[in-house]
């Protein structure tokens, strides 16, 4: 990579157009290419057929990155302006405020298929995130299921986010697109409309996952979840499997970095048997997917399937963290005895006002 980067000045001689582009932008393109090659090489080692690199003309570059420390946004009469070397001062609208203690390190400018341009900032925070507590007091286990989005040990169940209206709209626009003549003006207009629907769906789903993960990272000292890399996605029907699995992964990765930011323990546990095992006595019973209740033949413990799994996840997580702590977190003693009537609606309403506000529309039974 260093070689290629050092050849950039020569390449500029060879191709005039390159000189119009800010040098740091070209460097990040080289870095990106190098990273991609690295990833491909890894895949090839693992036996994947990776094909060949193709020439991509400049007009197909949808995004570029400015990487430099210490550039700042200007404020001109209430308008935020992003100054980009060799390009322009671009007025932008901030979707969320950049914290005062953050230093801008990078900005990526991207053109979405909708035709809109977005700037994404990479920032560095001046302060270190807080250390997770030695003795976590508020602990929670979360089971990520299919019928309900999450089910936790405090009885909070949050249903999968209802985006059916948005999906219907997308399908409608896609049908319209299929009737347009490819390449016509109307086709292009309709293609944008479809892209807008996609973007809307993506934004709403992500927003929901952000709020849900924020809630757990802020509310608790320890959050235990299943390690999805071990679990694999075998429980869901194949058509929805990819979507569900992608959403869970996004949720967990958001949760992980938010926990780090908030000083909350994040533990991913081995998921083997969390559904079958009784959270109260530990006896395993076979439980097909359609059995939604856990009813232990050995000790009589009865609870929702997801809640039982969540308790097992929490005790495994607490054990994992407890080994590195002077005292185990209080888990075993907290097992509920009266959770036989957990309703998603009721528990979310009884939950924190912020979560209620944010996910009230997301609850479905
Ligand atoms: Zn039992």
> What spatial order of strands do you see in the largest sheet?
9-8-7-10-11
Number of domains: 2
β content, as a range?
A: 15-25%
Q: Which whole number gives the mean pLDDT? A: 77
- Structural class assignment: alpha+beta
The general outline is globular
How many strands, what sense, and barrel or not for the largest sheet? Answer: 5 strands, mixed
Radius of gyration of CA atoms, rounded to a whole number = 25 Å
What is the overall number of helices? 10
Distance between the termini: 53 Å
Unreliable sequence segments: 337-365
Q: Which range best describes the helical content: under 10%, 10-25%, 25-40%, 40-55%, 55-70% or over 70%?
A: 40-55%
Number of E-state strands: 13
Bound molecules: zinc ion
Polypeptide structure, described:
By secondary structure, this protein is an alpha+beta fold. The protein has 2 domains: 2-125, no CATH class; 139-362, no CATH class. 40% of the residues lie in helices and 19% in strands. The chain has 10 helices and 13 strands. The chain has helices at 2-6, 8-14, 23-45, 164-179, 185-219, 228-231, 238-262, 305-322, 344-350, 353-359, and strands at residues 63-67, 74-76, 79-84, 88-92, 102-111, 117-125, 139-144, 148-152, 157-159, 222-226, 265-269, 293-295, 302-304. It has a 5-stranded mixed sheet with strand order 9-8-7-10-11. The chain has a 3-stranded antiparallel sheet with strand order 1-5-6. It has a 3-stranded antiparallel sheet with strand order 2-3-4, with no helix packed on it. Helix 4 (164-179) packs antiparallel against helix 5 (185-219) and helix 5 crosses helix 7 (238-262). The longest helix is centred in the middle third of the chain and has 35 residues, at 185-219. Bound molecules: zinc ion (ZN).
């Amino acid at each position: 990579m260093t070689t290629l980067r050092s050849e950039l000045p020569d390449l500029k001689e060879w191709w005039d157009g390159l000189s119009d582009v800010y040098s740091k932008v070209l460097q990040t393109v080289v870095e990106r290419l190098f990273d991609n090659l690295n990833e491909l090489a890894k895949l090839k080692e693992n036996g994947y057929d990776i094909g060949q690199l193709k020439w991509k003309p400049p007009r197909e570059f949808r995004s570029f990155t400015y990487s430099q420390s210490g550039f700042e946004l200007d404020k001109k009469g209430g308008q935020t302006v992003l100054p980009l070397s060799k390009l322009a001062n671009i007025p932008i609208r901030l979707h969320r405020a950049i914290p005062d203690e953050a230093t801008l390190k990078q900005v990526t400018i991207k053109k979405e298929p909708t035709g809109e341009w977005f700037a994404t900032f990479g920032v560095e925070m001046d302060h270190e995130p807080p250390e997770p507590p030695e003795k976590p007091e508020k602990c929670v286990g979360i089971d990520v299921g299919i019928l309900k989005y999450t089910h936790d040990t405090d009885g909070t169940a949050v249903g999968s986010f209802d985006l059916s209206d948005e999906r219907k709209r997308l399908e409608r626009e896609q049908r319209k697109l299929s009737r347009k003549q490819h390449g016509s003006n109307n086709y292009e207009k309709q293609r944008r409309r479809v892209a807008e629907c996609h973007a809307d769906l993506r934004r709403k789903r992500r927003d929901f996952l952000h709020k849900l993960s924020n809630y757990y990272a802020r509310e608790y000292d320890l959050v235990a979840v299943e390690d999805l890399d071990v679990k694999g996605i075998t429980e869901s029907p194949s058509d929805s499997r990819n979507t569900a699995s992608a959403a869970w992964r996004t949720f967990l990765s958001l949760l992980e970095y938010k926990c780090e930011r908030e000083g909350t323990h994040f533990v991913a546990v081995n998921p083997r048997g969390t559904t079958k095992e009784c959270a109260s006595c530990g006896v395993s019973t076979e439980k097909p997917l359609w059995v939604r209740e856990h009813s232990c033949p050995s000790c009589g413990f009865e609870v929702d399937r997801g809640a039982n799994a969540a308790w097992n996840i929490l005790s495994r997580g607490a054990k994992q963290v407890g080994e590195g702590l002077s005292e185990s977190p209080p888990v075993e003693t907290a097992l509920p005895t009266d959770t036989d009537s957990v309703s998603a609606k009721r528990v979310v309403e009884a939950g924190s006002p912020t979560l209620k506000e944010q996910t009230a529309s997301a609850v479905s039974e």
